[in-house]
Amino acid sequence: MAVRALRLEPDEILRKKSKPIEVVDDKIKELIEDMLDTMYEANGVGLAAVQIGVLKRVLVMDDMEDGSEPIVLINPEVTHTERMQRGTEGCLSIPNLRGIVRRPYITHVKALNENGEAVELVLEGFLSVVFHHELDHLDGILYTDKAIKTYHPDEDEDEDHQEEK
Ligand code: NI
Question: Mean per-residue pLDDT for 105-130?
Fold first, then answer.
């Protein structure tokens, strides 16, 4: 268990595509523990392995609602999305910036969990936002690539996530 250094833009590793994980072994479990430690230390709600310099397809997230448990997804794939939402995002790899991004409102996902078991999830609202943000990291995409606008947190108001009607 360890907090690891965050890779920050413009580190070029953030633009690389992460590779699928073939076996969920003790090394992967240790990586996941370090990702969670690093995410919580930074008060983040999501982290992709590439953000600590590991090009493997694993992401963690926790929306920090009361009683929430971290969600760990290995080799995640989107099977279906419904409706759209928009709101403010930030990224632990891009300090002092925010942006308004459109994302699916509901996302059906299949993946492996931290024990290597196949799981299917339906993510709604903010968790769907966090998921797509982290999934993009696995493909070398940053939210700034998709943002309708970006701004310094002192210079503009954050937008709560709202479903588009
Ligand atoms: Ni990010």
Answer: 97
